[in-house]
């Protein structure tokens, strides 16, 4: 133990930054809300013609999150209010056709429907149903599967559902988000009880009116619970 | 949008893998359990003589987690049963003295006291109190601060405390873990109620006997709640 290795002895790798953007949009046949994500068609080898997560190179003087945000904007025109780091994918066999070993730092974000509609237009950029993807480039199917799994888990203990909604929302709208993400109907009375017990919702004095239904109270999330809280990293 | 960038256009960077290992050990003066981590003294520039997280280079055909496990074992002899990816640190200014831009993929794990005692011996490898660190190499103070913040948050919604304990434990032992991590005393009756309400604990038919106290029931965690659950990545 005379010469412990420390982190400045490294292997040089190619670094890519990619982003999984989730939005709830109507399913093309059922018209029910379903999780969608934007993909970009590759126009060069390897995997030319396949769809891939939006992403791109890390600028020489750019942070990882800044690179994710910039490349996402360039490819899809989407500008989510926050991006969160999801996971680093760097297995030796993840891109065997590439000339050199590639590590991808993957970010993710959720966007509201109106934000989703503002971006993603063009023959090489399209929204896809997250659960009905074609075979994507590299290991991007696995990355999306992992992101969906994290989203479904995180729904249980965080206010992540709020990222799909406006500042205020009805309980029915919030339940709609949960149903779309979990892909199953939820009992309205049980859902109301769970949300009330969670302590995460704050009732407002406003109501959603109009339509066939009676006015529904609007709620907001407890703002002391952050949507994307990186603790000490926020200051860095 | 005729040429969307996709993730194979990348910047080449130096890649390091580091690990934050947390263990509960008695505070040297108060003798109360406190969060400790092992650090390795750097024996070359930059930051020669400073303490740093154990880590090292990524092998050419090695996965990120495998590299973390191997370098940790080589520097500290610790062999945690699982390592979990914590975060990728890659800001452009994080190692200005280094010859080239370095991205560190950081893993973390918790080990039990008997595991902690089995490793970490030598003048260049020592246990440190996580909340009383000297100035470390690179941005490793920030990395440890972030890991501590994640640990304290995760205590609220996961069974991460179990990683510091054996298969079975008394409520007092579990409370001791929470108190050591949160650095404040917890009311025993309140703690018991919270744990019972969480549904995460399963009572056993066994009791801890001996000492000055009356026999205390042993609990185990609900095994359907995984300690380190990576969902789809576990299969990959």
Automatic annotation (TrEMBL), chains A, B:
One family name in Pfam for this protein? NUDIX
Spell out the InterPro entries in the cross-references: NUDIX_hydrolase-like_dom_sf, NUDIX_hydrolase_dom, WH-like_DNA-bd_sf, WH_DNA-bd_sf, WHD_NrtR
Which residues belong to any copy of the Nudix hydrolase domain? 14-152
Q: What are the leading ranks of the lineage?
A: Bacteria, Bacillati, Actinomycetota, Actinomycetes, Micrococcales
Q: What is this protein called?
A: NUDIX domain-containing protein
Source organism of the structure: Brachybacterium rhamnosum
């Amino acid at each position: 133990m005379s010469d412990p290795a420390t982190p400045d002895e490294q292997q040089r790798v190619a670094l890519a930054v990619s982003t999984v953007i989730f939005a709830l949009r109507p399913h093309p046949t059922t018209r029910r809300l379903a999780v969608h994500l934007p993909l970009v068609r590759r126009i060069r080898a390897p995997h030319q013609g396949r769809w891939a997560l939006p992403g791109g190179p890390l600028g020489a003087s750019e942070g990882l999150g800044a690179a994710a945000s910039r490349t996402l904007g360039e490819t899809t025109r989407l500008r989510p209010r926050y991006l969160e780091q999801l996971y680093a994918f760097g297995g030796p066999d993840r891109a065997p056709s590439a000339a050199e070993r590639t590590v991808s730092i993957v970010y993710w974000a959720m966007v509201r429907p109106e934000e989703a509609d503002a971006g993603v237009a063009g023959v090489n950029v399209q929204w896809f149903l997250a659960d009905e993807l074609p075979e994507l480039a590299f290991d991007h199917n696995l990355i999306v599967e992992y992101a969906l799994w994290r989203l479904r888990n995180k729904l249980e203990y965080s206010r992540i559902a709020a990222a799909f909604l406006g500042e205020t929302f009805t309980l029915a709208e919030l339940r709609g988000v949960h149903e779309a993400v979990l892909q199953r109907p939820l009992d309205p009375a049980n859902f109301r009880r769970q949300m009330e017990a969670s302590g995460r919702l704050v009732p407002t004095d406003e109501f959603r009116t109009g339509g066939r239904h009676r006015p529904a109270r609007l709620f907001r999330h407890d703002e002391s619970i952050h949507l994307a809280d990186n603790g000490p990293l926020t200051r860095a």
